[in-house]
Specification:
Radius of gyration: 20 Å
Oligomer: single chain
Strand content: under 5%
CATH architecture: Up-down Bundle
CATH topology: Growth Hormone, Chain: A
Number of strands: 0
CATH superfamily: MFS general substrate transporter like domains
Amino acid sequence: METARPSATRVLLTVCTISFFCFLGSYMRIPVVPLLAASLGADTLQVGMINSAFMLMAGALSIPSGLASDRLGRRLPLLGGLALLAASSFLLYWSNSLPQMALIYLLFGVGLSAFSPTLMSYVADFTPPEVLGQAYGWYTMALYGGMTLGPAAGGFLGTALGLRSVFLVSGSLIFAMLLVAFLLLPNPGPRAPGNSSPVMPVLRGLMKNRRLVACLVATVGGCIGFGTFVTFMPLYIRSQGMSMQEVGLVFATQALANALSRLPSGRWCDRVADRTLLVNGGLAFFAAALVGFGFCRSVGSLMAVAAFMGVSMGVAFTVICALIADIVPREQRGVAMGCYNTCIYAGMMLSSIVMGTVIKVEGFRAGYLASGAAVLLATALVRLLYRGQPTGRGQLGHS
């Protein structure tokens, strides 16, 4: 039997805390893994393949994990995902070969697939629809703040403590959040009791919603660009003769700008009639920033472009999250968030493989130009898919 419903504010605060520290712990490994892999003999293509291992697994399993959280409740997938995330960090500490790192990153992907869609669904489960944009502003600020501060923290800790020690810090942070989730988060229960339809018919029904498809296209395109930044920026900066501390500065600048843009973006989302303007504008400026990286030759210019990228990304992705939560039926919210997370990792996986190949053959500038072009293509597709579609709020998503 479900207990008395806790306040939305307390649940949101708990969810944001868990999101921030889990993504901080997970992504502080991002600048460390390429450098550790390089020390074991990996080139840029092999580094991309290692990163794509967890993205492949996370993308493949996010949709069934979201569906499971709709039918079985949020608590079990969340706790299981956190346990796997912590275990993957501790295992990386003992890894000593490229195949081992790739296998551990597969485990990392399984954990993310269970953790991320479930936590995103918690936000909408407990938030009134009229402030959904602001709630996702807070949530995405925590998520991307942790995701982008993580590499900065990893760069600083890798210099101060050594590369492998970063994995111990990472695992400890995530394990602490497992305890927080176990003690403080309620279980809202299943949202689709008695519904045992296979996943494919459910997906086919969702894909008839062109507004949802537009949001997913925007997510894939944006994450191709973000994946290029996260995966290859440490190597790009090192190729310019800069230090690990400067890697941390660039990532910290992007993270700060990204985080500070989230709350105003959430407020705009709740007030603007046509929210696709915010998505398209954010993606267009994001593409311009990616192209700009290819022409940067100093840490100052890299930091300036990273700040510009952070703001544009903050605007686009905050609005995408709120749109998805609002335009699908409540009983399908978990699987819709699973689709969103699948698109995140699909975009980042494509970036790791394709842009890794482009960079290996043509250089870093060509890689950033290509990723900017991919984001612009996604922006055009979003406009096409939304053409003639209603853009008001609350038409499908809330019962």
